[in-house]
Structure formats: C-alpha cells, structure tokens
Write a sequence for this structure.
C-alpha cells in the first residue's frame, strides 16, 4: 500500500540570536569567499561539485544529479520495514521530527495508517533518502497526524564504556529515601512552563547595545559546583530549598523543576515521618524571628520591673489603708 505524503518540518525557528562576523574597528562585515586554491578564481555555486579524495591522491567528483539517479527504492519513497512498540525504541536513537502531510488523494490511506498505529500502539520503522543520505526513521501517530522521527543508525551511537564511574560506590537506603523526598519536593515538571533564559538575556544585551543603554548587570555566579563532601547534608539542603521555593510561591505545588548545577547535588531530604513536626517548628521559628532579640529582652525586663513596682506600691497602700481605717474605698491605681 502506498500513501502519497509531503514531509514538513515539525520544528519552527530554533532559539538563536543570529550574529555576523564583523571587523572590530569599523564594524565592516567579514565574509567568506570560495576560491580555488590552484588558480585563485572565485567560484559560484554552479562551479562547485562534491569530491572524494582517495588515499593515493585520486579524486572522484559527484554531482547532485548523480546522487538523485542512484538506484535506491528509498530515493522517492518512505519504505516501511516493520513495526515496533514505542517503548522498544531507545530514546538515544530519536532525532529530529517531521510531520507527514497527506498529498493528493492520500487522505484515506493516511487516516487508515494513523488509526491502525493508534489502535496497535506501535510505530513503523522505515527508511528514506533525505539530503544526500539514506536515513532510518520511525513513523508514529500523534494527535491527528503521522510524525516521522529521524533515527540514528545503531552503529552511530557511541558505546557507554568508560563513561560510568569506575570506582565501587555504595548507596545506602537512607540516601535513596532522601533522594526520593527531593524528587517529591521539586514536584512534577511542566515542559510548557520552561523558558529559554539565555536567549532572553542575549536579546536584552543586544537591545541595550542598540539603544546605547547600560548593559544589564551580570547575574550572581551559582553557588554550586564544588565537590560534595556530605551527600546526606547536600540532599537535605536541596529539599529545604525546594520547600522554601514552594512556600514563597504561596504554597502551590511547583510544576517546573528547578535547574541544579550539573556537577553538584545541592540539597537533601527529610525523613518522611517528620514532615508535620518540621513544618510546625518552622512556623514557630518564623514567628519568633519576626521580633528582634533585643526588643524581646527589653520587653521582658521592663514587664518584670513594672510588675515588681506595682506589687510594692499596692502593698504600701494596703498597709496605709488598714492603719488609717479609712471607710471609703478609693479606686486602685495601677502602675
């Protein structure tokens, strides 16, 4: 069965501020010219062909027409070779995605394939020629469309040998529990809420330069990155930071995970059974912290002295009253 389709990019303009190379002194543009190294002639696109130089110095030239005429079944088609469950595809192999759009008279077979993939929960493994290469691809159903993911060939994925730690490392159950608590404290990430802060900072810098305004102040350097000596203390601090961020946001669960420095684990967890106790003591600490220590001491001392004077005064008055045997009862004054 054939389905006529068009391949459409699924990714829009990628985040990037485009800079030109310029002469530092007069801001003249620096351009690259393609020049033949044998005769010094400047060449246009039509004068250039692909060339392969063999080890013995021989050269084979190849044109776009040569590549277009290669006898490959995938040069004009996306050839399906079989099907896989989505979870059987290694995420390392997933590359750039493309939308497949039905071409003329392709609507019915297009919808048929989309619904068949949705019902089976599988994706099609295919091959096609694109930009001078034959690529491996995965075709899957997504919402109302078919999506083609370029796949890296298995032999293009580097081995993991030598990447993992070589020394023997023992992780305790307590450390894993702390890590679980940190994961819970950071909350569920919402990719829709993530933003490219670097892109925004570059745009702000360029705008300031264009207006001749002051360049935005440099952000404080992150405190992380040092070697972790006490992993449990680091995990515990991370949990405190995460919970503090939640409270600062009004107690709402955080959807987007905070970015931590790649080389350091900052923070930790608290044993699960102590959360209520910890929260109460935190509130008490906050309440106490609002009143300066000096003020508290002064107030306490003042109250004590005032109370002593009041008692002495009251006793003296009472004694005087008894001696004079005054029948009338006067209102009692308080200090």
């Amino acid at each position: 069965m054939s389905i006529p389709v068009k391949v459409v990019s699924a990714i829009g303009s990628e985040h990037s501020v485009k800079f030109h190379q310029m002469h530092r002194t007069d801001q003249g543009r620096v351009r690259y010219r393609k020049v033949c190294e044998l005769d010094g002639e400047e060449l246009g696109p039509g004068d250039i062909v692909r060339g392969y130089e063999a080890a013995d110095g021989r050269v084979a030239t190849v044109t776009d027409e040569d590549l277009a005429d290669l006898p490959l079944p995938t040069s004009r088609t996306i050839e399906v070779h079989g099907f896989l469950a989505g979870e059987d595809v290694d995420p390392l192999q997933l590359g750039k995605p493309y939308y497949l759009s039905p071409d003329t008279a392709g609507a019915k077979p297009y919808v048929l394939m989309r619904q068949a993939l949705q019902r089976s929960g599988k994706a099609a493994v295919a091959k096609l020629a694109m930009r001078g290469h034959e690529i491996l691809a995965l075709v899957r159903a997504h919402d109302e469309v078919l999506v083609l993911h370029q796949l890296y060939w298995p032999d293009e994925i580097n081995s993991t040998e030598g990447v993992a730690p070589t020394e023997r490392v023992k992780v305790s159950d307590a450390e894993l529990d702390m890590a679980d608590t940190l994961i819970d404290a950071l909350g569920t990430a919402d990719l829709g809420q993530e933003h490219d802060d670097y892109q925004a900072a570059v745009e702000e810098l360029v705008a300031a330069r264009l207006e001749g305004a002051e360049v935005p102040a440099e952000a404080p350097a992150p405190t992380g990155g040092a070697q972790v000596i006490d992993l449990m203390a680091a995990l515990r601090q991370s949990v405190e930071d995460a919970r503090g961020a939640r409270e600062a946001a009004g107690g709402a669960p955080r959807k987007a995970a905070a970015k931590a420095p790649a080389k350091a684990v900052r923070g930790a967890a608290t044993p699960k059974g102590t959360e209520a106790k910890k929260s109460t003591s935190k509130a008490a600490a906050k309440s106490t912290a609002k009143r300066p220590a000096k003020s508290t001491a002064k107030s306490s001392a003042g109250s004590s002295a005032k109370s002593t004077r009041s008692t002495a005064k009251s006793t003296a008055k009472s004694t005087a009253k008894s001696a004079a045997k005054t029948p009338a009862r006067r209102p009692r004054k308080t200090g």
